[in-house]
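Appendix C reproduces, verbatim, an entry submitted by the partner laboratory led by Prof. M.T., so that reviewers can inspect both the input and the predicted structure.
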Amino acid sequence: MTDVSAFGQTFDLDSTGRDFLWNDSIWRLKNIYEPTLATQTLAETGVALDIGAGFGAFAVPFAATFPGWKIYCFEPDPGSFAALCQNIQKHGLTNATALPFAIGSAARDLGQDEPAILGAMINLRHADAAGIDALRGLLPRRDFSRHRIHAGYMHRGATPADNFEVVSHPTLAARYLEALSPRLLKIVAPQAEAEILSDMKPFELDHILGESWGHVPAHLVYEACAGLRQTELPLVGPPLVNLRRSQDLAGRVPRLDVVVAMYNSRKFILECVAGILNGAGSEVHVIVVDDGSTDDAKDLVEATYGHDPRVKVLRKPNGGCASARNYGRMHSKATHIAFVDADDIPGRDLYSGLLDLARHTGAEMVQGGFETVFDEGEDGLRVQPSYESGDEMVLNANRHHFGSRTCHLLPSEFLMQGQPTIWRRVYRRDFLENRKIWFPEHIRAFDDQIFQILTLQAVHNVPVLDGVYYGYRQHAAQDIRQGDERNFYSLEMYRLVIKRGIAEGWGRFDIILSSYINTINWISAKLRPDLYAPFVKGAAELWVYARKGLEADVFKNLSVDLFHPAEFAGHVSAFEEKLKRFPNSYAWAYLDSFEMQVPLMKSLRSEA
């Protein structure tokens, strides 16, 4: 007998004498059940189910604290059931009923006397011991595995292992519990959580709490489910994975909208949309934004997917990719959003898997892997793994089981210095909107890079789902392959980033500047020869402005020698000599030049 404090009261509870069961149950009470219900508002009356009640560590405090609720406590282990009955009786709880049954899935309980069981369930609200015995006689016995040492731990099915023994218990199919009209579910049913929640999908549940020993797909508490389904269901072990759901007061729809910016993409768009939907259920929708195309791509998408409620096509005047992405986002009501280029090929299960991971982690953004897909014309497509696939940080990351796959964390600093890869990511809408992160529409190239930097600098780590990939198509018509004036947008983009970082007080400008160095080196190697000199000059000028606008410590590991263009250091020296009489100030980040403004550059080039 030990005193337990919960919900502002103290209870003396008898256990089975098993220390493991006691410690495990009290840990869940203090770390899951009590904190979860403290953040939710329960109705004055209702019905609760306690599956895996043990000796009543949750049921007894709950029944005493919420006397308007009726709680049915299911515990098949004889020793735990005896302690449960004793604790209910000791505390005089007339609103708690102990039932000596395991709970399973209807798929495993075919052949039962369904009418008789349904009748017994309806009468269960007033059942006495004889009535419970009658129900026990109707139920089949199913095998479970019980740990020989930690006897409080029992999981579904018979597992041949040294530390487990097979036991059988009368088992009630979860779907019959609907007869009790439950609104709250507390569940501890190791490795049976998903099948039980699948049977309970039609139930009008408002609250789900417990712990899981296996992957519970998020759609079981999100997709077309009745009730509020406010959920707290952490996975045993890694703190990364916890299936959560809270009441949405913003009126958003619990799904993922994938915005596809399309301009004259007839050749690629159907393959792109098909890739997004490949393996996705009803919770992944596609918003195709036709950005003033002059081909018939919009008609092609509507003819192919007009019957599919998951696909919507919008049309707007041409404004650039950033404009199209913002337009699609403003027409979305989803809780999560992603952005895709119309010429790319998302892989199977990418977005359904990322939505699942986003819900289990609650992260601001999650991502999958990506592959480079080379369009070789008549020879078809050639797939090449990304540069990340061989990186030691990726290879050595600590993996966690996540359904049939694994997941891991990558530092945002690592991702920020790499290639802009926003299209293989899923974002939480409230995160983007609270941080006021949008695509700058006056930037007609590199808008994905500024979006990547703004989002990644706001987080520490990004959860990554292994085994899903985005196909980043390479072809001759790509904007980045043209080597034209659009590459100068990169300078304006980094100027905006530095300005915003100063205004918001960012702490790691060295990461931003490392990204800048990588970008300048990449662009300078691909530019048209007539644009090379003004680009390098503009890049050097912005570097000097950054040096005069930011703290000196930012540059202690960053020198001009890291830039590949041979002329870069000379331009930096010339600008520094020209400006040496002026003091350092944040104001330098607000200055620009002709080279940082693409419309001016185009005008100057045309006049020349």
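The longest strand covers residues 461-474. Additional entries are available on request from the coordinating office.
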